[in-house]
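Comment thread on ticket #2218

A.B. wrote:
> Attaching the input chain for the structure job we discussed in standup.
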Amino acid sequence: MDLVKTLEERYLKKELPTMNVGDTVRVTVRIKEGARERNQAFEGTIIAKKHGGISETITVRRISYNVGCEKVFPVHSPTIVSVETVRRGKVRRAKLYYLRGRVGKRAKVRERI
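C.D. wrote:
> Ran it. Output below, let me know if you need it in another format.
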């Protein structure tokens, strides 16, 4: 078990912001298109955090053109360039799946001061 833990610690990212469920984050992802590489940002609300350690993932949801879009990002993946917290959210749940049925102002999360 110690061998697995030492291998995992090598690939963990050191500089991650504190992100909780309900926060609005901007995730910058490195995308390869043929021989070219570019960075693309995805900004939305974290509705779920799963697992821990090297396999930690966050589910980010945003609404664009009245259509909800969710992406699951492995936090410690090498394709993730950066994760920055835009807004802190005040929620009382660990999973915000109820936001899937809401649009407009009802899908907003209150801000933590």
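A.B. wrote:
> Thanks. Noting for the ticket: The chain has one domain: 2-97.
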